[in-house]
Amino acid sequence: MTKQIEKTYSPQIEGAIYKRWLEKRYFHVEPDASRRPYTIMMPPANITGKLHVGHALTFAIQDILIRFKRMQGYNTLWLPGTDHASISTEVKIADAMKEEGLTKRDIGREAFLERAWKWRGEYGGIIVQQLKLLGVSCDWDRERFTMDEGLSNAVYETFIHLYNKGWIYRAERLINWCPKCQTTISDAEVEHEEMDGSLYYFKYPVEGGGFIEFATTRPETILGDTAVAVNPDDERFRNVVGKTAVIPNIGRRIPIIMDVYVDKAFGTGAVKITPAHDPNDYEVGSRHSLPIINVMNDDGTMNAAAGPYAGQTREKCRENIISDFKRRGLYIKTETIRHAVGTHERCDSVVEPLIKMQWFVKMADLAKPALDVYNSGKLKIVPARAGKVYAHWLENIRDWCISRQLWWGHRIPAYYCEACGEIFVGAQAPEICVCGGARFKQDEDVLDTWFSSALWPFSTLGWPEKTRELDYFYPSDVLVTGYDILFFWVIRMVFSGLEMIGEIPFHDVLFHGIVRDALGRKMSKSLNNGVDPLRVIEDFGADALRLMLVTGNSLDNDTRFYCERLETSRNFLNKLWNAARFVLMNLDADEPGAGSGPSAGSGPSAEPDVMDKWIISRANRVSRDVTQRIDSYDMGMAAQMAYDFVWDEFCDWYVEMVKPRLYDKGDPTRPAALRTLKGTLIVCLKLLHPFVPFITEEIFAALQDKEETIMYSAWPAYSEACDYPEEEQMVERLKSAIKGIRAVRLDMSAPPSQKISVVLVSPDNAVRGFFTSVQRTFAVLAGARETFIQADKTGVNGNAVPVVIDGATVYLPLDELADREKEKERLNREKKKLSAEVERARRKLANEGFVKKAPPQIIAEERAKLEKYRKMLADVEEQIGSGYNYLHAPNNK
RNA sequence: GGGAGUUUAGCUCAGUUGGGAGAGCGCUUGCCUUACAAGCAAGAUGUCAUAGGUUCGAGCCCUAUAAUUCCCACCA
């Protein structure tokens, strides 16, 4: 006997279900050559992170795919994990230390790392626990951390490999320096922000008389100037080129040179050149062999080379320079200018270009194969426009600065001989140097956090060991992520996978939008407009949250977070819950056996009737459509279709239609009704399970005699045998008749308790036969006391209200209730509508071009429509014109 | 400076290869009909941003324009 479920839906069930799934180890998989794998690598969550709604969206999408494929019989691995998040974690720990009055330098590297590991142990698992509340079905037994031993080996192996190939090198280059975080950052980590700034005009005295005027946005870098450049074609400067200008205050003599880089139209046409602090100037400087003078310390203050300005912050120095130039009469003017300023995306401080010795990955050779797999279609990127961004980035890629002046992360596996300075790259320092020295010092820097995440798709499977997992699960099927980490992560995984494994890390990349607040703003700490998913889950449940996030939006667009939408989802779940309750109640009231059987309407003892066939047919088609939608990553539409089917067709129509059969214990079609009811509910549950895993599991369990999980039940497959187009058409007639009658009743304010008589007149035998077979249902849903089904109008009161449907007219003898005027209006509205339809179809078919050029199927459909509407129109006109005399009817209202 | 989105009902958004404009919320009206008032039933609401073009036929394809959002970029 089936179990009963609680009276109202409550998301409190979720915790226990997840616990059961974990206990049963339903998420865990092993390589199995007899089954096809389906693999998703979960983007590792930062250990510093807290669950936000963005996570909820991205993990909901991944879980939908995983659960869908699992039910389709794939051996599905969804591998979770966390990222050490080098810089964020380090900053966080340093901040915590500040409260104790300690700095990193105070305690030293080793003690700091000790704290970091301790911190990771204490807080690193929080986000994982929060993730579980979402219902994610990932294989927790395979959870990985980017600084696990195995994953670290992968990092060193890769570094050494690339170094030996000459693709990792150490060089002194102009890099992006974050003065606040005190480390280099990669180009990708610099955010260019357009803002209003000042363009200052100054002049340098020229030796031999005169001045040269120039403009700059960064006066403090004057101290590092080693030339002034003008365009070779610029006539205005002909007489000063080759002469020497003098920087006041510090008295440095610098040449006036020519370089095509200079834009004649900008500023004064002359540019001060600071090779140590500007990428362009660096280029110019190397072309002209100019000295490079670094005037800044790592913390953004001026260094000794700044002479009298040494020790000042860059901001203070700027002010002082301006006032000094003013005092000397060398200041001309200040203009406001809109220009891009580079800031560090993590801390927002202005990035300082500096020359430093750093480690780089040479990108040219790595980028090419990554571009090839995209161009050849081997790597599919959804949506397609993201692919263009991918290609554009790779085509214009520059070398990747991978060293960071931090402690938390993978330390660069390079060792320097203390005697001669020779570099050795390897897992350990060598025994002895070529110079005979035996003391080595490891490089102080760690690697960019993305260097290790770039290896995630295979390092998590055991590489560089040759494992069964790597062999079986790699490459993964799809990578799902927000478009914001395309450059940071996705591209780097692709070229890393291609280089180290020789195969792309995933076949598809699916980018989705971000979750915004109700006003469409990005959620951010500064606006304090973030939505806490944990609160939402507490109030509405993970199912409601997940459903809300994926429904009603196309994936690639951003979505707004509305509480009302959450309620809509919650209401739907309650609807589903109560539909299930209804089914369970009826199954329970049934004698054993009749309602059992998992599939819809396939039992010999319970042949489905026409209504059953209708819902079976609909369920069948919807299953096919939902499957197609998920397969094409159209989760929103898939969810919407399942939602509509459950609510509109199953609950509002089928369940209502089937009630009279259920309430009559003697009805011979009752077993079929029960069977179909249960079977269709199960199809609904299965279609919904990827989206709302908890509630579907709970109901599914209640429907089963034995313990079974919906997770591993078979996904509904489309079957032609379950297609019943004729039954569908008939039931559509039934629905139109009922809707028409209801409309009339409402017009007349006839309460549901007031039963009426209904006469259905149709010359069509099949239509009459159908209505006869569903007579009782028809009567109940139409609120009829009795129904007469006949071929002509015999006995129909002249004052009866007609409702015209396709193939029949229904008469409601409502004399005493009828509001004649209202009915007249209604019929005329009908007439107008039908006339428009007829006219539209007629004009279309009268169009020579249409008949000549349109596909035959479209023309045939159009003809059928014309025919149908013409008939209905004629019926309506007949009612208006002849048999129905409104004007002389009594009006008792 | 380059590129990509978006513009559809009062609000938020769907609308797969071009073939009769949709949903949720909100609104109007009537219902506690023994699964569900987190519900049921019936309704109203759109120059599909603008202007051209292609086509028998355009919300969908092409061109231009406007508004708006985002990404990329070394003009001081």
What does this structure look like?
- The chain is an alpha/beta fold.
- Helix 18 (610-631) crosses helix 22 and helix 19 (635-663) crosses helix 24 (775-782).
- The strands form ten sheets. A four-stranded antiparallel beta sheet has the order 7-6-15-17.
- The protein contains 27 helices and 30 strands.
- The radius of gyration is 38 Å and the shape is elongated.
- Residues 593-604 and 885-893 have low confidence and may be disordered.
- The chain binds one RNA strand of 76 nucleotides through strand 9, strand 13, helix 7, strand 14 and helix 10.
Brief synopsis:
With about 900 residues, the protein is an alpha/beta fold. It is built from 27 helices and 30 strands. The protein binds one RNA strand of 76 nucleotides through strand 9, strand 13, helix 7, strand 14 and helix 10.
Topology (SSEs and partners):
Elements: H1 13-24, E1 37-41, E2 45-46, H2 53-71, E3 75-79, E4 81-83, H3 86-99, H4 104-123, H5 126-132, E5 144-145, H6 149-164, E6 168-178, E7 183-185, E8 190-205, E9 211-216, E10 227-230, E11 244-247, E12 252-258, E13 270-273, H7 279-287, H8 314-327, E14 331-344, E15 352-361, H9 364-375, E16 380-382, H10 384-395, E17 400-401, E18 403-404, E19 414-417, E20 423-425, E21 440-442, E22 446-447, H11 449-453, H12 456-459, H13 468-473, E23 476-482, H14 486-500, E24 506-512, E25 515-516, H15 533-540, H16 542-550, E26 559-560, H17 563-588, H18 610-631, H19 635-663, H20 670-688, H21 693-703, H22 725-747, E27 756-761, H23 765-773, H24 775-782, E28 784-790, E29 801-805, E30 808-812, H25 820-846, H26 848-853, H27 856-883
Parallel strand pairs: 1-3, 2-4, 4-5, 10-12, 16-24, 23-24, 25-26, 27-28
Antiparallel strand pairs: 6-7, 6-15, 8-9, 8-14, 10-13, 11-12, 15-17, 18-22, 19-20, 19-21, 27-30, 29-30
This protein binds one RNA strand of 76 nucleotides through β9, β13, α7, β14 and α10.
